[in-house]
Model the fold of this input.
Amino acid sequence: MDLSIWEKESFYAPADVIIIGSGFVGLWSAYYLKKRNPRLSITIVDRGIIPTGASTRNAGFACFGSVTELIADSEKIGEENMLDIVRLRYQGLKKIRKTFRRTDIGYEELGGYELITAEQPYELDRLRSVIDALNQKLRKITHKKAFYLNDEGIKNFGFASVQHLVENRLEGQLHSGKLCLQLLQLVQSMGVQVLNNIEVKAFEKINGKIELDTAQGFRLTAERLLFCTNAFAKQLMPLLDVEPARGQVLVTSPIPSLKFRGTFHYDEGFYYFRNLGNRVLLGGARNQAFEEEHSYNMTTTDRIQGALEKFLREVILPGENFTIDHRWSGIMGIGREKKPIVQELQENIFGALRMSGMGVALAPEIGKIIAKKITAS
Done:
């Protein structure tokens, strides 16, 4: 496509920074870049009409980690790394609440919970010991007690086959679409340009500039380039340690007698559900078919949806009548390491990637870190 001179000198003009990806990480990165240097010209490009990787397709949890997830992370990546990640998540959630009015992003601090069943190796005494130890370690981050044993809630919430319930009073839920829209409007008000429906096919350095080839047939030019496309970054940079992980979700019909409100985790966070008004939003079960869910294909599958429905009928809503009104999937970015990639990948080419399913909470702090690195280069 041949561009007019007006287009070349306005919408497609060379930028100081081009960000690929208009999801949470891309938007927060643009926000902090502008805060650090308001004179920077910043263009965000996204191949979708709206961001459609994970930012607008997740479960809307404002969480920083369940007990069994954090214990598993300590064993896999070490306690210090686990606490570093929790710190980023917790600070990110605080930044979201500070930046936006709760009503504008659908934020409700209803608490988070974790279900413990007989299939998990947590007898009561061990569970109490684990909770006490975690609370002590997290207090430097939260300055409050986070986890409480709340077995009385099992009957009140109507769950079946659950032995113990752990409550986290510092977590909440939000509307992912509204948060993304508020962020988009915020960065645009700061002078950030967002170009949708433009797919970057390749990039190269020419005479000290970074040139981007687009599927639309024209080129974009930048001084510095930032990848914020999570797992999809691997399609342009194959050597990155980031892989796609599909997360499938369903939402029930309204249930007038729904007994619980809040966000809930089970099995190290591989299952997660919440109330959405008087409906239930349930996602996960990726651990039932890791290889199958290692996919860029944004569809739902009978295998995972069947596992979700089984959990819904046998544990969450035993004896309730309901239908499934909505199903969808999103693509997370994971890798051999759980810590995000936040670094200069090549000269003047940066990456803020691998959120491991926690992009909502991580994005504000990751955006702040990468903006500092970019402006210091």
Notes: The chain has two domains: 5-57+177-241+337-376, 111-171+243-334.
